[in-house]
Amino acid sequence: MRETYNLKRYGFKGFYGIGFSVGSPVGFEEGGDVAARVSSTAREAVFSPLDAGNRAETVARRLSDAIGLGLIADGEQLPSESELAAQLGVSTVTLREALATLRHQGLVETRRGRTGGTFVGVPVDSSVVPLRGRLRELTSEDLRDLGDMHEAVAGAAARLAAERASEDEVDRLRSHARTVADEHAAGARRRADGRFHVEVAAAAQSPRLTHAEIAFQSDIGALLWLPGSEAITPQAAAKQHETIAEAIGCGDGPVARTLAEEHVRQEMGRLVELHLRLVRGT
Amino acid sequence: MREGGLSVARLRPSSFEQACASVDDRVEAVFARVEAVRRDVLALLARPLGENRSPRVAELDPLQDSLRTALGAQADPHLAGLGYIAEVGLFEDEPRLLAWVRRAEDGALAPLHPDLDPDSFGFYDFTAAEWFRRPLATGSRSMVGPYVDFAGTDEYVVTLTAPIVLDGRFLGVAGADLRPGELADSLLPGLCALGADVAIVNAQGRVVVSTSSRWQVGALVRDSAPAVNRSCRRAPWSLLALEPSPLA
Q: Is the pTM of this model over 0.90?
């Protein structure tokens, strides 16, 4: 009960609370970019109505996921606002709010005039395409198992760090906790995020846990930070890192472990959702 | 410090002084190796720098042989690695340079090639490491750890470094790594003879070597009132005896 209390105290809860509607699986041929392989039926499903009660944030998230996963391609024009709002089953006010969020994130741009409209504007980094392929090809079981392993490593590392981190090391954890939110490029975010986790394992004084954390970060880390479909928002990641660093700084091993486990479990849960969206093509 | 209690009276203070002295001896022996590297590097870099030009990596080649000799099979103390880490931008043909030879636990020697690309996830950012920053900032030698040297050797090590300075210009650090386990091999016989559960801890109170499973290597000894607490003279370490072992 103590852990539950503490988790509430640290303000942990789900990130998005979004339910994804289940579409029928789409058959893929091997090779090529994901976007190119998505059938038109599946593509329409991207714009299928949202459950009642969802708001602009959910619309923005669904669209940015689709962009990040390559389901809507760079340069593609979105349907008109009224059309898109109708397809998603939201008001145009809500849709505009969502589009403003996406514009702010640099994922779409709106052009005025006769040839105007809202266009996807994410320059496709050459490194993103193989990552999308990798996320699709890993099975849900692979992802769950990798998540189990990471939870064990990150949880144990956080508990031991709470026992063993020196003041200098706690200071370093605190200073690395927020860097993920300060970075804007995907690669830099991914390095900043991975670096925090590796620092926790190093503060645990365990070379083996550190190796395991580095191996996880090298293997899966980049998948957490696909531009547009991040497994966690940089702000949420920074906030959670801070609470983990705080628990370590307080020397509270059990809480540090629970927070770290919860953090990586939520990330991996989102990764499974994103994987399933790629498989479904919606 | 709580000394002179009944239980401690059975421990001979002189033997603790002696144990600290043997720790200092080991540490000084390692710093002697570091000093030799410092001199070698200065000798190799004096010429290009004297000619007012940036040195080239190839001019450092002869260092490899002397590092290998110092780490060879007969070498004592056992080092985990030895070498030179250059100040960023010093060399003409390499922005970041480590001339470091690593000795595996089985004695095999190999040059260390960490990832020095700042944009890579595995980037070895040695300029942020205390063993690099402190000699740069203070001009004095430093002794850091034990710590997990991730992205570098990926081992749990103690790192000893000394700044290399020529005409007021910082050229980098000479350094050596020690494995706590190998240090324990040479120190444990003497420590076990003290007749108490003892630990050598660093300035943060982190256990480097211990004769008891109650204080594991890497653990922090906090809030304890050691029966004996002797500071080493040369190493920034202390020898603690928490209480006499019941079997002593």
A: no
